[in-house]
Amino acid sequence: MAKFGEIISSNVPVLIDFYADWKDDTSTSLHSVLRDVAAALGDKAKVIKIDVEKNEILANALRIKGNPTFIIYKDGEMVWRQTGEQDANTLITLVEQYA
Question: Are the C-beta atoms of 69 and 78 separated by less than 8 Å?
């Protein structure tokens, strides 16, 4: 994985989904939600998934306690954060506020 600081310092909004594979009852539907979000936003934003089990140090540093946790960064700053499932339209609307 690229360095986290490089990922979030983008001048376009970066939506990050912190997830865990063990929570597989909703992960399949969330994968399709994020695919829809990425397709709708195109070049206006980046959509990234980060497995908390494979990136424990980062997850702990950001105090990720629940799955999924969505965070939007813009120019290296966290501008929005929410734990819990979100639908594609909500995520698209949120990200577009920072585009």
Answer: no
